[in-house]
Write a structure and sequence with these properties.
It is a single chain. The protein has 218 residues and is an alpha+beta fold. 44% of the residues lie in helices and 11% in strands. The chain has helices at residues 58-76, 80-84, 91-124, 142-179; strands at 41-42, 51-52, 192-201, 206-215. Helix 1 packs antiparallel against helix 4 (142-179) and helix 3 (91-124) packs antiparallel against helix 4 (142-179). The longest helix is centred in the last third of the chain and has 38 residues, at 142-179.
Length: 218
C-alpha cells in the first residue's frame, strides 16, 4: 500500500523574495532574471519595518468620496447633494419644508411686531392721545397683549428651529444616501423559502428525503 502526501511550503503573503538558489548553477540553460513585485509599505508608530498597504483604484476612491461630496453640496445649496445622488424626488420636499418654515416665521414675526408696537405705544402715550394705536387690539388689555406677544415670539423661534432641522436633515440625508450607494438593497436580499431534497445515509445508501430550504442572501 502506497501513501502520497503533498507538502506545501509556507510563503510570506506580504512580500515574496526571490532566492538566488532558485537558479541552478550547474544548469547549462541561460539564467532567467525574475523581477520582484513592487510592494507599497506604510511605516507608522508600532509597525516596525512596515506592512503592505492596499492600493485603491480611482473608481473606489471616487465612490468613497461621494458621501462627503454630497454632504458639502447640500450644505452649500439644499438639494444639490440629492441631485448628485440621483434622488430628484427629494428636492421638492426639502424646499417645501424650508419655504413652510419661512412662511410660519414671517407670520409670527409680523404679529409679534404689531403687538410689541401696541404695547410700546400704550406705555409711552400722552394723555391727549388715543388709548390704542391699532383698532384690532382695542378690546385687549395689557395682560392679553403680553400673552399674545409671548405666544408669537415662541412660535417664531420654533419656526427657526424647524428650518434649521430641515436644513440639517437635508445634509444628513445626502450623506447617508451616498454612503449606501455601494450597498445592495435589491429584492435579492429577501429570505427565500423553497422545497428541496436532502440525502441521508440509510443502511449504507443515500435516501432522498424531502425538506425545506431557507436561504439568507448576505
Amino acid at each position: 500500500m502506497t501513501f502520497t502526501l503533498s507538502v506545501f511550503a509556507q510563503t510570506d503573503t506580504v512580500v515574496v523574495k526571490v532566492d538566488s538558489a532558485m537558479s541552478n548553477p550547474d544548469s547549462k540553460m541561460p539564467k532567467t532574471t525574475v523581477q520582484k513585485d513592487t510592494v507599497v509599505s506604510v511605516k507608522g508608530k508600532g509597525l516596525g519595518s512596515g506592512k503592505a498597504s492596499v492600493v485603491k483604484d480611482s473608481a473606489r476612491l471616487a465612490i468613497e468620496r461621494m458621501p462627503g461630496q454630497a454632504a458639502r453640496r447640500s450644505a452649500i445649496v439644499p438639494g444639490w447633494g440629492q441631485i448628485n445622488n440621483k434622488r430628484w424626488w427629494k428636492v421638492p420636499f426639502i424646499y417645501g419644508g424650508l419655504v413652510g418654515a419661512g412662511l410660519v416665521f414671517e407670520f409670527n414675526q409680523r404679529y409679534y411686531k404689531d403687538i410689541l408696537t401696541e404695547l410700546q405705544y400704550r406705555e409711552l402715550r400722552a394723555e391727549d392721545q388715543p388709548e390704542t394705536q391699532n383698532p384690532l387690539y382695542a378690546n385687549l388689555d395689557k395682560a392679553a397683549l403680553l400673552s399674545g406677544r409671548n405666544y408669537y415670539r415662541r412660535s417664531r423661534d420654533l419656526s427657526v428651529l424647524a428650518g434649521l432641522g430641515v436644513y440639517a436633515i437635508n445634509i444628513i440625508d445626502a450623506y447617508v444616501d451616498a454612503k449606501f450607494f455601494r450597498w445592495d438593497i435589491s429584492d435579492e436580499l429577501a429570505i427565500k423559502i423553497k422545497p428541496s431534497l436532502q440525502s441521508f445515509p440509510v443502511n449504507a445508501s443515500l435516501v432522498p428525503v424531502p425538506g425545506i430550504k431557507i436561504c439568507f442572501a448576505l
